Amino acid sequence: MKYLLITFLALIYSGCSEPFEPITDATQPLVVEGYVESGKGSLPTYVIITRALPFITEIGPDQINELFVNGADVKVSDGEKTVQLTELCLEDLPPDLKLVVAESLNLNATDLQLNICAYVDILDQLLREEGRSYDLKIEVGEETLTASTTIPPYIPLYNIRFDEPPGEPSAEFARLYATIDDPEGVKNYYRYKSAENDGPLITPFTSVVNDVFYDGQSFEFPLNKAENLEEEVPFDEFGLFSRGDSITLKWMSIDKAHFDFWNTRDFSANSAGPFASYTRIKGNVAGALGIWGGYSVDNYRLFVPYQ
Question: How are beta strands 218-223 and 157-163 bridged, if at all?
């Protein structure tokens, strides 16, 4: 079974001056993954709570089922009201949220046999707006976890187009390009996902970028197709979209803490191997590992043209 994305955060970090302390059966910290979104195609606010796996452990359905934390008290404040999130398990989750939760855990939603549970704002009571801050408070037994995030202004894409891939023209594949006007003098951070036809939205190997090299500029850039980790992709097809397919591109603006989380997570995931150094994921949840992040989003529906 593939690694659970968020559950294994504790296994992969360290700075040069900080020693690595592996997790044991007696020290399994809580792990939080939660998001609040605004914009077209945004999802309900939700939070997943698990326990980190010990450094040395056998992984199977029974062990993974035991990681999910049930019965927590989860509240989110939008600055005007505080909403208690409702615990929903697999059979009760909305279909779109079920897919996202499965993808967050690096699992195949069509083959789920696990008792996956999430805490959801099922009545959509929170005001999900750009520029607003959101405070999260979780109580699990005697443990209290807190975090805060913001939904930054959305920076849209335009002039989205498909063109020939590098090298020889292709009748089968095309590369995706988009243009953005990055606001000057403001640090901006971006993330994206893509889906083909009726497939789920998945993240590419490197899913985030900041504007450190192009602050205040208008420029065109390529966006790679997010590849399924279970499939082997030929080198000359990597990141390319198949002609004739329908594409969904989810483009997101995020704040710095949210960027730091995914930036360190992507670096760690792409630096695996027997000689790789471990990397600490930069979370923002006090008292736990993980992320409480805000997104401003839009979903672009595209068709990859034939030649």
Answer: unpaired
Q: Which residues contact residue 293 at a Cβ distance below 8 angstroms, ignoring those fewer than 6 apart?
A: 34, 35, 36, 149, 254, 255, 257, 258, 261, 284
Q: What share of the chain has pLDDT > 90, as a percent?
A: 55
User: pLDDT at position 68, please?
Assistant: 80
Task: Give whole-number Cα distances, 69 to 5, 28, 51, 55, 85, in Å.
Answer: 16, 12, 7, 19, 14
Split at pLDDT 50, 70, 90, the class of 3 is very low
Assign 301 to helix, strand or coil: strand
pTM of the model: 0.83
The DSSP code sequence of 214-262 is TTT-EEEEEEPPPPPTTS---GGGTTPEETT-EEEEEEEEE-HHHHHHH
- Measured from the Cβ of residue 195, the count of other Cβ atoms closer than 10 Å reads 19
